[in-house]
């Protein structure tokens, strides 16, 4: 596969809004190429000899494993630094920590709460910094989601992409802006009290104007899912919001993704996406607690949809690794 290569060398990856459509689509296409190379055992050690810091203030399965395996495949050494391992903002300022890490590592991944922290790391470390999730954005997730869409439909432009649920969370923000950036028909469907923030909607509208995409924010499920190519949902309560369960269950129950909603699209080829982890059964202690306290056996998606032919959630999870690999290779790698 021949790719036109935008120069992203040295650039941090903090949010979709910092990239042009061509750059963002290039990362998805590069991920497709790297995925193909991995499947065929073709070496792609674009980060030979590099050292990568993986900073995690929150737990993670997919993002941590994706960065770790991607580093190894690219020939780099990943060093995991959990919330109790370094002094980031506790006994040492973020600025000073960034300067120290930048002297030792060639690139830094950060997962945490405040978006400002990842921005400060990028500002002061002098090396590329990659956002593994903050309260505001989850851009490496968007890349994996859009790679999954492209694998299923062969394109991104004009795809009717519906996000149903908490419209204010980081995943919704990223999908809204990212979808508008690449020219999708993005629809956020949530109760009015959980509509995305005005500045995020305005940003998405600006991008949609340039890309030929479309942005719809609605509380009406039937209107949102009509003709949908992809239906996406996320947990109703994000990490750090555990006191909001009762309120969110009441607000979001009408937005649960069930087979009736899939059928409402009128599109037998519609795909179901979820960034995971998902609460679709009682096979977790978390799920069992929710069942004991609120009586629910499944939350944002029914087990039937989760396990159906429409569900591409495990392709999506795998694609985290290929897309994260593309981000690191493009911003730090020797791509010749
Ligand atoms: N989707 C996602 O970010 O998964 P993890 O929390 O497991 O990294």
What can you see in these coordinates?
The structure is a single chain. This protein has about 325 residues and is of the alpha/beta class. The protein folds into two domains: about 15-135 and about 320-330, Aspartate/ornithine carbamoyltransferase (Rossmann fold), CATH 3.40.50.1370; about 160-230 and about 230-265 and about 270-310, Aspartate/ornithine carbamoyltransferase (Rossmann fold). The chain is about 45% helix and about 15% strand. The protein contains 13 helices and nine strands. The strands form two sheets. A five-stranded parallel beta sheet has the order 7-6-5-8-9. Strands 2-1-3-4 form a four-stranded parallel beta sheet, with helices on both faces. The radius of gyration is 19 Å and the shape is globular. Bound molecules: phosphoric acid mono(formamide)ester (CP). Phosphoric acid mono(formamide)ester (CP) binds near residues 60, 61, 63 and 141. Phosphoric acid mono(formamide)ester (CP) binds near residues 61 and 141.
